């Protein structure tokens, strides 16, 4: 029996061992959801103990546990965010929850989101994601959420062909025009990733966030920060919003919250937006007792004195090393990010996007240099993402950069 229940793939720390026995250095922390790497002992032990005692109970019995985790998350949340709703298992449904909150609180229905954003793969979040390729495959998505997808901040290839700071963040100020001409006054929410993850690791300038806050205030729109990728230390801060000057009304979390990859999602909000009734948004597998346990155990580690500070210090060094690499490889046209969340944009000599090279670098890195990277097939398509687990030491990061450099040299 046991042989059907176990798998030959395994992982420890930054290393993934494949079914055929290869040891790979994972610079993408799983699906960007393993902040502490593979099989972190503290989280594993907590989950094992919990599984032996109780692995599932109906949500009525786990409400206190959910609220305890909520309290811990809120202690780190940006000012004004004081309530939690922990009933999800994924980032997609956490984002749907945020939209339900905004719709119920405002009595309006539309959602503004940005080109190249990714908010999930349910029908409504497909509609909200700024990826025409995906939306185009599912025309019914447009009936699940009425989304107005507008150009956002992507300074390296500005949608308005401007350059920062002379642009006066036209990408944000234009939103007011869209509101006037295209929305008929029914916008409930604006959803934004503090750093666009799948879209290509785009980091907006702080004025962008100031401006969208002003617009949301002026028009009574709920501002949702989708921190599914960026929260829980990824940028060297518990929440990227805090680091980037974004002051949201609602924050959504998932991915890294499950510590070692257990599914769990959470929604944090301002008090006046705590409007949902329990039966309006909950799932059999949401806020599972194992997910809650993993999240609490992961927070134990993230909250250790100096842990996030080390991520900030190491992350800055990683950024410098990647920029040095870019100087040596002309195909790298931009390096951007913070903490342990970096993207390298690859371009042809004429400046156009080099998508085939991006695929080649990722493939060669894994096949020849044992380094796992991820691309952004559904975003810009020409961004290599470097997002190691937060436990990576300076030596680990140097090793990642060395292997990436070798892959760039071999692929060009
Ligand atoms: N938001 C963002 C920013 C994401 O990156 C993702 C997943 N890539 C999601 C939402 C959806 O999360 P999930 O896959 O857990 O549904």
From TrEMBL:
InterPro entries: Aminotrans_3, Aminotrans_3_PPA_site, PyrdxlP-dep_Trfase, PyrdxlP-dep_Trfase_major, PyrdxlP-dep_Trfase_small. It holds the Pfam family Aminotran_3. GO terms for molecular function: transaminase activity. Keywords: Aminotransferase, Pyridoxal phosphate, Transferase. Gene3D superfamilies: Aspartate Aminotransferase, domain 1, Type I PLP-dependent aspartate aminotransferase-like (Major domain). It comes from the Bacteria. Belongs to the class-III pyridoxal-phosphate-dependent aminotransferase family. This is Aspartate aminotransferase family protein. It comes from Streptacidiphilus cavernicola.
